[in-house]
Write a structure and sequence with these properties.
Blueprint lengths: L2 H16 L3 E3 L11 E3 L1 H20 L4 E4 L7 H7 L1 H4 L1 E6 L6 E3 H9 L7 H10 L16 E4 L3 E2 L8 E2 L5 H6 L1 H8 L5 E10 L14 E11 L5 H18 L7 E5 L11 E9 L2 E10 L3 H10 L5 E2 L5 E2 L2 E8 H12 E5 L5 E5 L10 E5 L5 H14 L5 E3 L5 H11 L3 E5 L1 H6 L1 E6 L5 E5 L3 H8 L2
Parallel strand pairs: 3-9, 19-20, 19-21
Antiparallel strand pairs: 1-2, 4-5, 4-6, 7-8, 9-10, 10-16, 11-12, 12-13, 13-16, 14-15, 17-18, 21-22, 22-23
Helix pairs in contact: 2-11, 3-10
The structure holds zinc ion (ZN).
Length: about 450
């Protein structure tokens, strides 16, 4: 991690806490397991991102429908999907300080060697190269072993363990037949879902990048086995990138990384990760995989149900599936990182401003009376607030001088500030200040609604 970039990350983390975006969870108890709470503005931002996604991938398309399945699903489903046997990370514990590490990642970081899946090789190298614990500096390791990443729990009336879903996709496959039977959908079509997923990561970190409890936006797009899938695959990849741009990301900060044939899951024809240049380095943001007929075939086998699709010519087949996946929390992190700017103003003055795209900004318009102790100004400002709040998330603020209020809204990323002054009472106009240009414009109160509708979408 480069010093100046980790610096940037710290600045974003601190702004998030200071301005009510994201807090460390359970801080009064000393924090808990690298978990975070979304504060009032963070919740707005996250909801806006999910709304934008739903609009683009469900509302505006004729070949997509949505659903919302449970977090706790039939245990057999995880047997069928392979999660019970294969959803593992490689871990090792330091016997001295008891800290747990991802053995593969730690060895790669220290030695530069990639021993993917070779547990024996990892055990050997830990001893042979006397690899030191990054936490305590000693070299006394347990055996390297696999750890299943699913969270286990129990449920009344169910004898076997129940798992918190490690991805949202499971419910989509389990209800594929119900959607086909009830919705008159024709292949190719997709099912979209947004929801929480849980992975018992050995190491969580990098703020909200790697969380054990996180949110996903997933699509299963069902196609015929005869479909020329390459074109559809490219089109999904294109749309996933469009979505990153809608979060405010720049082209230079996005790259694609295709999985090599050796690293590809046995059933996948092609998998591509979309990576983002986070302050802590290039890391996976979204993914797109051609999963063949693996999932539906497995669920048909384990459930004993016929999951064939019958096309208009009465041909039966198990559809193939393209799976574009998006992380909600990672999307939030991209929006925050892309938006953050320290702008040099006249003199030594520095303005911290979040250039969030207007569509996802938590607050669209902030409304100020010029002075707090003038009831006629406060009354007028409240009137404007009551009017605009019907269409936009607004905030009323009469605290401190107007310059300070502007700066606060800049850090929140509010695109517009409206100030009511003494002239407003006479000319029925207000000052509208633009976050990005800092330009101030006089505008009739009655024209505000139309202006914001036109400029905030
Ligand atoms: Zn140690």
């Amino acid at each position: 991690m480069k010093e100046n970039t980790s610096d940037l990350m710290q600045k974003i983390v601190s702004l998030c806490k200071r301005r009510g975006y994201i807090f460390p969870a359970c801080e009064i108890y000393g924090g808990f397991a690298n978990a975070y709470s979304y504060g009032p503005y963070g919740t707005e931002l996250k909801n806006n991102i999910k709304k934008l996604w739903w609009k683009k991938f469900v509302q505006e398309r004729e070949d997509m429908v949505g659903m919302d399945g449970p977090i706790l699903l039939h245990p057999k489903l995880w047997e069928a999907s392979g999660h019970l046997s294969g959803f593992n990370d490689v871990m090792v514990d330091c016997r001295e300080c008891k800290k747990r590490f991802r053995a593969d990642n730690m060895i790669t970081e220290i030695t530069g060697k990639d021993l993917e899946g070779d547990l024996e090789g990892m055990n050997k190298i830990l001893v042979a190269e006397k690899i030191k614990c990054p936490n305590c500096g000693k070299s006394n390791w347990t055996e390297v072993r696999y750890l299943n990443m699913m969270f286990k729990t129990e449920m009344n009336g169910i004898d076997e363990p129940v798992y918190l879903r490690p991805e949202t996709a499971g419910a989509i496959f389990a209800d594929f037949k119900n959607v086909v039977d009830s919705m008159r959908v024709k292949i190719p079509f997709g099912i979209a879902q947004i929801g929480k997923a849980f992975r018992n990561e050995i190491v969580a970190g990098n703020f909200i990048f790697r969380l054990r409890e996180f949110e996903q936006m997933e699509i299963e797009y069902f196609i015929s086995p005869d479909e020329k899938w390459q074109k559809l695959f490219d089109s999904w990849l294109e749309q996933q990138q469009e979505f990153v741009f809608a979060l405010g990301a720049k082209k230079k900060d996005i790259k694609l990384r295709e999985h090599s044939k050796e690293k590809l899951s046995h059933y996948s024809r092609k998998t591509v990760d979309i990576e983002y240049n986070f302050p802590f380095g290039w890391s996976e943001l979204y993914g797109l995989a051609h999963r063949g007929d693996f999932d539906l075939t497995q669920h048909a086998k384990f459930s004993g149900q016929d999951l064939n699709y019958t096309d208009s010519e009465n041909k039966k087949y198990i559809p193939h599936v393209l799976e574009p996946t998006f992380g909600v929390d990672r999307s939030v992190l991209v929006a925050l990182c892309a938006a953050y700017e320290e702008e040099k103003l006249d003199g030594d003055d520095i303005r911290v401003v979040m250039h969030l795209p207007k569509a996802i900004a938590p607050i669209k318009v902030a409304i100020f009376p010029l002075m707090k102790n003038k009831p006629e100004l406060v009354k007028k400002a409240k009137e404007i607030f009551d009017l605009l709040k019907l269409d936009f998330m607004c905030e009323f603020d009469d605290n401190g001088n107007v310059g300070k209020r502007y700066r606060r809204q800049d850090e929140i990323g509010t695109p517009y500030c409206v100030t009511v002054d003494f002239d407003s009472l006479e000319d029925k106009a207000v000052t509208v200040r633009d976050r990005d240009t800092m330009k101030q414009e006089r505008m009739k109160i009655e024209e505000l609604g139309e202006y914001f509708k036109k400029n905030i979408n």
